[in-house]
Amino acid sequence: MAKDTDPAQLSRTQAHALRHANELEGHLTWLDGITGTALGVLAVASGIYTYLGVSSLLDDNGALSFIAAMAYSVAVSVAIFVFWSYLLRLLPAVRTVGSRIGLFLSMCLGSLAIIAMSSWLNAAALAGAAAVEQHLATTVQDYQAALERANTIAVSAQGLQRDVARVRQGFDDLSEQEATGNLSGIAGQGAVFRLLQQKSGELAGLETQIASQQPFVDAAFAEGNAILSRMRALTVEAGPVEPRSVLFSEEAVRLANIITQLRQLSVAPLVVRAAQDLSASVVTPQLRSTSNETRQDQAATIDSVLTVLGQRAETLRIAAEAVSSMTPPSDTVYTPISTADAVIKYAGNFIPSWAGAIAIDLLPAVLVLIMTVTQAAIRAGRDGSTTEDMMTLADLRAAMIALKEVEGHLHVKAPEPIAEPHPVIGPQPVQMTKPAE
Length: 437
Prior knowledge:
Region (Disordered): 417-437
Organism: Yoonia ponticola
Protein name: DUF4407 domain-containing protein
Transmembrane segments: 28-52, 64-88, 100-121
Keywords: Membrane, Transmembrane, Transmembrane helix
Oligomer: single chain
Largest sheet: none
């Protein structure tokens, strides 16, 4: 059987809870004096940064743009102040679960609206210039990768000169063997010798053409690196970012031309075509030997030479196509970007700035939650208490004074009414008068 609760113990518990609730209410009364001021300061600060963010988006710096930016920032400040003022008063006061959920969802929706209309502009004001510089630095890296890739392809194409020289040297060696009679068995500079010299000359011309491209490749790569150096300097240079962006754009156009030039300086397509022509365009010299056996030997040697020529041409073509099939540099184009767009594009690099921009707008949400918890604690402390229990000493003193005043008014005697003479009914006595002497 459960024990009965001691009324004295219950009274002491209720008194303690009531004192705790009164203490919390006293703190809230003091805090109410500064809450409005603090909320106003936060709203004004957010409005200032919103003004800076809006100004960065407007191209015109005239009076109309100033008025537009100012009007938007004032509207944001008023909206933030009114929105959080509503929630600070209403959300802690409601008691039903449905009302709390509804107001909480309203708070979430309003917070998203504040982020959409203010926080991203605050972030643009806080980190807009740094975000644009990040965009410039990223673009420099892209251009550097494209320049290095184009130079790698051009240098690899220049390396085909060694393959061409090796094939040419092979034909020179064969022609020397033919001149001494070690190839076809007939010494001299006959048909086979002339065929070998013909292909050796074609390869020598191709080799000279490849070698002539090397100075242009080196000069283009050096100029590209010089442009990259100037672009890096513009990225980290002190001062406003807008003028630097204009100069950066001009240098980017020059560098794009250099990259295109390097791509055009690649001789790999030329070597591919030369390798195809090497075996396809063969002018067979006329055999003038008087001996039928000699002509047959020369014809057999020419067929062997043509076979070797086809094999060497195929090897050279494969090497040139390997260079041509290398992944070309990506098309890099510098696109100017505003501070707001840069902050959004590179948001991951500016998380502290985004956190500060959002916190200045949503910090009152913490105050709302604190007020809600505190009001719930006050209501829990007063639960089960009557009006008499919740009276403080000051309330009791005021009640006693009021009671004394009421009692004093009740004890004051009212003035007695004046009696009026009543009429006499019946015969009236006759008053005798003494005659004058």
